[in-house]
Amino acid sequence: MSDRISKIGLTIDHVLIAVRDLQKTAETFNGLGFTVTCEGLHPGRGSRNRLVVFDGEYLELISITDPTLPLFRPNMAEFLGSREGLFIFSIGTTNIQDEFVKSKSRGIDIKEPLYGARHSSGGDMEYSWRQCEIDPFELPGSQTFLIQHDHTIRQRYKVPADPWVHQNGAFGIYNLTLAVTDCDKAAGRWQAVFDLEIIGREYLFGLNADKVSLAFDNGVLDLISPKGPGLVQEFLSVYGECPYSLAIRVRNLQHISRILDTSNTDFDRFELDGNDSLVIKPENAQGVHLNLIQG
Fold it and tell me: Which domains does the chain have, with CATH numbers?
């Protein structure tokens, strides 16, 4: 993995997975060997969440609490009207003000950093952050926003104990793949906005698609586009440009296989970037096309 990451001060901070039923989703991810945090509410935002956290990044399982409330992300209701699964993702930074100024100078439609915090039931501030919203149409393949956390993962999430420890040995995001109509053009846009390095180009025979890979500090953003008929072309014709799949790093695929067999979860074996991986189909992961890759 070391030759597939960079040091630009930007990370894939968290991936939002929109679902209709948080309890069912927690049970699904528990069955896949993940630890899931307790439910958190977003007062005034019309949504709630549960998390799958690693030591630096996380997955946010998010659903709508009350459809009559004004949603912070209105397009999530439309998304959930058609399916569940990978929704959008967030880019982490250690200097959000600098990233805001840089993006603004490049003509990006981005809002100034806003402060946010989570408080306990007693009113005490538990952790805080700042985030910049980027216009959903600025970047191909996924809506995104910038976020700077004021506390580490281990400071923020303490229930259940050690939530970053997972039965399946998962320890971080390997890549996020976006389906786009033209991966070279899309990669050029992401690169121009965030100074991301292009670290590879490849033809994916099984998908009949081209791939361009961009490096974040902790993982890879892969952009794929169809060369002709195939799964990617079919996906784009139904959903348009959006997140396609997610890969999580795990320590031992043999151990994972036993967990999946125990939960009666079907999976396939697949080679990803020259490494063995297991593929869990969307119907077995709340709409997420999920790869588990060793190391």
Answer: 2-156 (3.10.180.10)
Structure confidence by residue, pLDDT tens digits, 210-254:
999 999 999 999 999 999 999 999 999 999 999 999 999 999 999
Containing 27, the helix (H) or strand (E) segment is helix 22-31
Task: Please give the structure tokens belonging to residue 277.
Answer: 């991986």
- Contacts of residue 220, defined as CB under 8 A and 6 or more positions apart, other chains included, come to 4, 5, 174, 175, 176, 199, 213, 214
Q: Which of 62, 32, 290 is nearest to 176 (CA)?
A: 290
Question: Is 246 in contact with 86 (CB distance < 8 Å)?
Answer: yes
Rounded distance, CA 280 to CA 182, Å? 26
DSSP one-letter code for 110? B
HSE at residue 149, side-chain half, CA atoms within 13 A, is: 21
Phi, psi of 231 (to 5 degrees): -65, -40
Threshold 0.90, pTM exceeds: yes
